[in-house]
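Form 7-S
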Amino acid sequence: MATRNEGLSIEQAYCDARKKFREAGLETPDMDAALLLEHVCGATTIDRMTAPEKRITPSQSDTFAAFVERRLLREPVHRIMGEREFYGLTLGLNEATLIPRPDTEILVEMALPFVHERIALNGTCSILDLGTGTGAVALAILNQAPLATATATDLEPRALEMAAQNAERYQLQNRFSTIQSNWFENVSERYDLIISNPPYIVSKVINDLDVDVRDYDPMLALDGGDDGLNAYRIIASQAAAYLKSGGRIAVEIGFDQKTSISALFNQADFTTLEAKNDLSGNNRALFFT
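Output:
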């Protein structure tokens, strides 16, 4: 018997993977199987409906089988694929970056009106993205605001490399620069907008996170310290020195951190302008001036 499924149809490949994922208790077996199959051979759900007997090549079969095994070990689908769509951009990932999440798009949506307002007033808007990871937030804003510029910082050089590659993918590199920095440490300019999706998970609960997160996401981007607020203390206490007149700060937060984070910024003489919830109705982003 052959050791690989040469000539397997796209529908059979999908069904086999879905069955394995269901038996393993994965939360979204249908979606996982569909995403991995499409990534390997381009077969969409419509393709499986209209041409279910279309064959995948032996090489594609081997790749798909390897991807299925990785998913059975709880490696996240998008980390296996090496990319994730965010606010209309398909962004590359690596081991030093978080996977951009749909909830973080709320941060972009909250900031964009101010960015456009600033451009209308001054002809541009300068943005500092602290802890950029893949560059998702800054690049999404630049893609929507062609006159804006962004400087992205991260402590992890591999994250900055990926962010730069993502900027080049969408020809945004001329308005996007990176600085390796521990928050503001190596920053010297002032900006119209400081934006950040910092680590905010309480240290003691990290071991209780889903395996998909705990074992595969970079700890540097997860661990917010004993109370989850370490990064916010730094941003709140130092941001004023890096903001232009009339500048603003936008941060993503944990679902139960609205009151505590608002208090940190209010104590540092910032005024809370707006709070936005995510797709599930949880507190997700705060806007300060």
